[in-house]
Amino acid sequence: MHDDQRRIAFEILYAEHAAPLYRFALRLCGNREDAEDLAAEALAQAYRRLDGYRGDSSHRTWLCSIVLNQLRMKARKRRVEVDPLEQVRQVATSLGHEDVELAEAICGLSEPLRQAFLLVKGEGLTHAEAAKVLRVPVGTMYFRVSAAVRQLRSSLNPVVADKDPAREAPCKP
Amino acid sequence: MQAMNCETVQDLLARYASGELSPKQSADIKGHLDDCADCREALLFHRHLDGRLGGVPVPPDILREMVLRTIETAPRRRPLLTRLFGDPLMKRIMISTTAVTVCAAAALVVLPRTADATTPAATLKAMRAALAGAVQTGELTLSASVSAEGKVTVSGTLDGQPLPPDVPLHVEVQHTGKLYDIKITAEFAPENYSTVRFGKDHSTLELIPKGTPDHKFEVALDPKTQKPKSWTCFDRVGGAWKAVGHYSYQPKAADKSSVDDSKPIMAHVKILVNPGQNASIRMTQKS
Q: What is the share, in percent, of chain A residues with pLDDT greater than 70?
């Protein structure tokens, strides 16, 4: 690939993936600086492998994997101090209309549920793709996403908390 | 079809909303939703969430510079060996692997090897090959003598000790006047035995020649050389096996020359017998 071709390919890559990757990273870590680092590293790695870039959905899955791997490495290297209020504020900036209520509910999810939820509902990966990213069985992913949505529903609409479908309540037409 | 309950439906709603279910499952859920306000509300929440999560923040301008800087300053990929040996974990693995390899190699050299053969037939074949090698080196000798009356007697020694009578020596004699042409073949082919099996603990090979169900012998093989180190003959007396002869040997080191174990162990010699005299000759295997 010539330099001009690589430059154009980089522009396409950046235009297509920079914003969603930054959003994903920001929602994951709730810290703007860390989100920038994670997104920059993922995009740089993607650029180095431009020759193999097929532009299909697998690339998105792969980029999300890089972000998550980088996040794990960061967590291993240093203890990540999280300011809950700042985390909610930053996650809210990634949501439409700075939705603080939803941001607070997302930050209240456990890490496995939050990661599964953000990959599937936030980034639009299929359950199978998200399972590959998190290296868990797809059945685990079904459970995590479903559990995350239930918890969010309970948090955002407390009335729902009383409606436990497991009780086999008769359906209302 | 069993109707779906609300819990099952709500577990499937994420996949229903993203179109990941089969047409049949989707139709079942749609049927349930038509009749269930709670699940319709849950689906509405899913769609509502999708709308609220869809926002895409504009990445900060600095991100572009950071990506380019990361690309430019990225260390050149180190050669494979440097990557492997430079990694602390890999160093530990290499050190421990090397230690294990050295120990295993030392064990192979120091400890007696077990027989390579794992089945009785393969063990018999290995012994046959080892004996063929012993003939070549003179460790196993086959001798024939002819009396003045023309009677041919054949015997053998291994490590200077007499071969047991069970060693199947096949003798073929032709003579023209005083010249005797003698071929001796020691055959340990599996087809000559009705039973070939391991004895206790695989330490011996038990052989019952065809046609002699009341006679057997057990051979203990040297694990290194596969040559017999002891040979015990048994006769069945009153239903029980009784040892009737025992021979033991001190096998020399394994012969390193290649031995074609597909050929019979055979000796061939011509003896000139003078009237009134015995003639005896020791033979080794001819190739």
A: 82
Closest C-alpha to B164, from B200, B215, B224? B215
Cβ distance of A40 and B38 shorter than 8 Å = no
Is B20 a residue whose pLDDT tops 70?
A: yes
Note every long-range contact of B187-192, with CB atoms under 8 Å and residues 24 or more positions apart, other chains counting: B187/B264, B187/B265, B188/B124, B188/B127, B188/B128, B188/B131, B188/B265, B189/B128, B190/B121, B190/B124, B190/B125, B192/B168
ipTM score above 0.85: no
Sign for the CA dihedral angle at B195, B196, B197, B203 comes to: positive
Across the interface, do B10 and A150 touch by the CB < 8 Å criterion? yes
Here the tokens at position B119 are: 């089945």
Q: What digits encode the pLDDT tens for the residues A27-36? A: 998 888 889 9
Tell me the pTM.
Answer: 0.52
Interchain CB distance below 8 Å, A96 and B52: yes
Interacting residues of B156 by C-beta distance below 8 A, sequence separation 6+: B140, B141, B142, B143, B162, B163, B167, B169, B186
Confidence at residue A13, expressed as pLDDT on a 0 to 100 scale = 82
Helices (H), chain B: 6-17, 23-35, 37-53, 61-73, 80-86, 88-110, 120-137
Closest listed residue to residue A127, CA positions, set A108, A106, A149: A149
Place of tokens 């870590």: A29
What residues of B are in contact with residue A100 (Cβ under 8 Å)? Answer: none
Q: What percent of chain B has a predicted confidence (pLDDT) above 70?
A: 70
A149, A159, A160: best to mutate for the B interface, most B CBs within 10 A: A149
Angle at B147 between CA B146 and CA B149, to 5 degrees: 120
Query: Per mean pLDDT, which range of A137-141, B234-238, B269-273 is the poorest?
Result: B269-273
Arithmetic mean of pLDDT, B103-110: 61
Residue A172: φ, ψ to 5°: -95, 125
3-state helix, strand, coil in chain B (%, to 5): 40, 30, 35
Cβ contact B36–A166 (<8 Å): no
| CB-based contact A43:A18 (threshold 8 Å) | yes
* Amino acid in the structure at residue A8: I
Residue percentage of chain B with pLDDT more than 90: 13
Please give the span between the terminal C-alpha atoms of chain B, in angstroms, as a whole number. 81
The count of residues in chain A is: 173
Which contiguous run of DSSP H or E holds residue B216? strand B215-221
